[in-house]
Design brief:
- The protein has a domain of 72 residues: Cytochrome Bc1 Complex, Chain D, domain 2.
- It is built from five helices and no strands.
- α2 crosses α5 and α4 packs across α5.
- The radius of gyration is 22 Å and the shape is elongated.
- The N and C termini lie far apart (83 Å).
- The structure holds heme C (HEC).
- Heme C binds next to α3, α4 and α5.
């Protein structure tokens, strides 16, 4: 190693240690997720991440269509035309699998009773 940069080595090590400490200080949790990063249930994950488009007419209706879970997972991770892709930071693999199964086996909600 070049002897002229040797005095800088401890500075670099301290900087890296500082980065490691600050990264550990802020766990990436949000109030909508459980501390493990998982949603409380597949239904909650669906309601918080998908329903705002897929039950409002922004995106197509997905319920009661028996869409294959693999197809749902693939569309979410890769996006599809007007639908944005969702990275792991938005929904983790286990939660996405749960959502895909939930959507695949879901039924349409009963229409509100007429008054
Ligand atoms: C920002 C609005 C938005 C959100 C949030 C969103 N989607 Fe979509 N999604 C769309 C739109 C718009 C399309 C239609 C894409 C197209 O054909 O242009 C779509 C299409 C899809 C399709 C394909 C439907 C078909 O008929 O083949 C699937 C599956 C899907 N979304 C699943 C999901 C899931 C699961 C989530 C939650 C993790 C989600 N989407 C969240 C807007 C959204």
């Amino acid at each position: 190693m070049n002897p002229r940069i040797l005095p800088l080595v401890p500075v670099g090590a301290a900087f890296i240690a500082m980065l490691a400490v600050s990264a550990g200080a802020a766990p990436p949790t949000s109030s909508r997720q459980t501390p493990s990063g998982q949603w409380a249930s597949p239904q909650v994950a669906w309601e918080k991440t998908c329903a705002r488009c897929h039950t409002t007419g922004v995106g197509p209706e997905l319920r009661a269509r028996a869409l294959p879970p693999e197809y749902i997972t693939s569309v979410v991770r890769n996006g599809l035309l007007a639908m944005p892709a969702f990275p792991h930071t938005a929904i983790d693999d286990a939660s996405l699998e749960g959502v895909a199964r939930f959507v695949s086996t879901s039924k349409l909600p009963k229409p509100a009773a007429k008054r």
